[in-house]
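Re: weekly structure request thread

Next one in the queue (124 aa):
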Amino acid sequence: MPTDRRTRHVPRPLPVRRTEPFDSAETAWFWLQRAQLCRAEGARLDGDPLAAARPCDPDDIVRAVRRLTADRVLRAEHLRVLTRHGRRLTPPDARLPEEARDAALWAEALDRLATPLRRKGIVA
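Done, posted below.
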């Protein structure tokens, strides 16, 4: 009687880590920007085993922004400000006259982004 000599591959269970939501939409946005910077440099996003596990992937935040843009909740000027200051990893400073408008748009955009991120459990 022939025996089946095929190797059976059974997935290993992944360790379950408690996830920690972001404390604000701004923190989530800067985390996304750092992840995109790492991706652009060719790094794999396996995650730091000592870092807090997050309840999402960077793409989940991107999808939320795209949805808000498609629904016209976020405008092109919001996206420009989020991108410009996100890449610098610093929020605009409302005390500087040249950044006052950016600071208002920044706050408005993050306020609008916080709602869907909260709904998904990404932001506490």
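The chain has a mean pLDDT of 87. The radius of gyration is 20 Å.
Next request, please.
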